[in-house]
Specification:
Radius of gyration: 25 Å
Shape: globular
Helix content: 55-70%
Strand content: 5-15%
Number of strands: 5
Number of domains: 2
Strand order of the largest sheet: 2-1-3-5-4
Oligomer: single chain
Number of helices: 23
């Protein structure tokens, strides 16, 4: 197997690296087959709330700015890409998810090319495999959200840019890929700007190469241009530069507090060192660093990732951690998607340099990542960061089926994203729109407010946050007032209590992987007060 892999990845006669077009189908086969059970799932959470409606608007009318959902100024490249595939294969979730698998494969191919250039083929194979298996990356590989698009563009850009001084030609290729990343998601601009800052710094350290570093700095700053062009167009169409006021306030105004920044930075550092069993390769790397480097047959030490490349990777990690500690109301791990291959590169290269049986570390980390897909951690996390999101989709499907059976034609009290699932047949949950009465969540204040809303026949209630029964008290950070103030945390009431307060009958409920969903029926208009 090892000999066959070497023959494939290196052309037999000339020992030249196999081109990316030969590697892509191999990786795609792995991504497609490993995600096969997920390809028919209806759309989930932010997919249903923004990305699919935005792409559907473009698919139907060619509108770059969505009109069926609130615009948040995300660039239109993902919507255009999905609309293209819907034109070819039809507007069904399976076409969408297969198309996203292609984007994930494109990103993983870039990971392979980058790591092979910085190290060698064995390290590239191991790093690409671990990246594909890492729970956050694995789940994003079929979800129609902008982060995997931005990761693909960023990784290809780094495959050209991540060297001491890229040539002019490689610099322009990197600029093109960075621009595509930025036109997929605006926050991708942080990585090229971080590298531009690095090259400006290098002009002071290496005056002899100053002209080349200034050229690279200018090239890596140029992706700002298409981003500004998009914002100009968005302002022309909507009167807003960065999206609707609610979106800007949540993601860029309420975040500007020192305490909130410190708390968010701690969470971001946790997400790039510990999160979803990432601590396994990271701790193995730290332990291996205490061992001496192994010697090659010629007596030289096994190679490492160059100090220059390591420094640039460090700048990228730091810049993203700081940026996403300020921007973005929700501390979602998927925002850091391009960072995980870089972290795993450092881990794998360290193992190979210092451990004779380094492949056992790869296997151990792979097992940890696979376990992370199925076993929830003892701390709060977004369901989309492992296969818990599938459980949530299935529970929502079952609950909606119960409502359609028990209260056909009725009005349903619920919260987002179920409001969209019930009213938008294109999301895959219903065939005809269902009338809804919307509340924000299932906390006590919102349930109190629900008693004053117009009459409804049923309620679809569910946990909007993951809660673990085994979470130790010192990990229950969300119970503090600061988490409610800065991160919008709330406590959902249990379904039985919601039914009691609304004077309804709890007729169906299910619990899976720390989440629950329930259906409540009502026989009269809900005009009662709670007290």
């Amino acid at each position: 197997m090892h000999d066959w892999l070497n023959q494939f990845l290196f052309r037999r006669h000339r020992q030249e690296p196999a081109p990316a077009w030969m590697i892509f189908p191999v990786i795609y086969a792995f991504v497609f087959l490993s995600h096969l059970p997920l390809l028919r799932l209806p759309y989930f959470w932010d997919e249903a709330g923004y990305y699919i409606p935005a792409a559907y608007d473009f698919f139907r009318t060619g509108a770059l700015v969505p009109y069926s959902t609130l615009t948040n100024a995300h660039p239109p490249l993902p919507a255009m890409y999905l609309a293209y595939w819907w034109t070819l294969g039809g507007f069904v979730p399976s076409v969408t998810r297969i198309a996203i698998c292609m984007v994930a494969t494109l990103a993983l191919t870039a990971v392979f090319v980058l790591v092979r250039r910085l190290m060698n083929t064995p390290v590239a194979v191991a790093t690409t495999l671990l990246t594909a298996l890492y729970p956050v990356w694995f789940t994003q590989s079929t979800l129609a959200q902008a982060d995997i698009f931005a990761a693909a563009g960023t990784m290809w850009a780094l495959a050209y840019a991540l060297e001491e001084l890229p040539s002019m030609r490689r610099g322009w290729w990197a600029t093109l890929w960075f621009s595509l990343a930025v036109l997929s998601k605006e926050t991708a601009i942080v990585t090229p700007l971080a590298l531009a800052g690095w090259h400006v710094w290098e002009t002071r350290r290496k005056p002899a190469q100053a002209a080349g570093h200034w050229r690279a700095a200018v090239q890596f700053t140029l992706p700002v241009v298409p981003l500004l062009a998009w914002y100009s167009y968005h302002f022309h169409k909507t009167g807003y530069i960065f999206g609707n006021p609610q979106f800007v306030r949540y993601n860029a105004v309420l975040t500007l507090h020192v305490l909130r920044f410190i708390l968010a930075l701690g969470q971001r550092l946790m997400q790039i060192t510990v999160y979803m069993n990432l601590f396994v390769p990271v701790l193995c790397m730290v332990a291996a660093m205490f061992l001496p480097a192994l010697r090659q047959p010629d007596g030289t030490k096994r190679p490492r990732v160059s100090w220059n490349a390591q420094a640039q990777i460090g700048i990228i990690l730091l810049a993203n951690a700081l940026f996403f500690s300020v921007m973005g109301g929700a501390l979602l791990a998927r925002y850091l998607l391009p960072l995980y291959p870089l972290i795993l590169l450092l881990c794998v290269s360290t193992w190979r340099r210092r451990l004779l049986q380094w492949r056992w570390m790869v296997a151990l980390s792979g097992v940890a990542f696979i376990a992370g897909l199925f076993v929830n951690p003892p701390y709060r996390f977004a369901p989309e960061d492992n296969l818990t999101y599938r459980s949530m989709i299935v529970m929502q499907q079952q609950a909606i089926a119960q409502i359609l059976h028990r209260a056909p034609g009725g009005t349903v009290l619920t919260a987002w994203p179920a409001t969209d699932e019930l009213t938008r047949p294109e999301l895959g949950y219903v065939r005809q729109p269902v009338k809804v009465v919307a509340i924000d969540n299932f906390s006590l204040p919102q349930i109190q407010a629900a008693t004053q809303l117009p009459s409804y026949d049923a309620a679809l209630v569910f946990s909007t946050k993951y809660e673990s029964d085994i979470t130790p008290s010192w990990l229950r950070f969300g119970d503090g007032d600061w988490n409610r103030r800065y991160f919008g945390y709330h406590n959902d009431l249990p379904p039985a209590l919601i039914a009691q307060l609304l004077h309804g009958e709890l007729v169906w409920r299910i619990r899976s992987r720390g989440l629950w969903t329930a259906v409540i029926l009502f026989n009269r208009p809900q005009m009662a007060d709670l007290f």
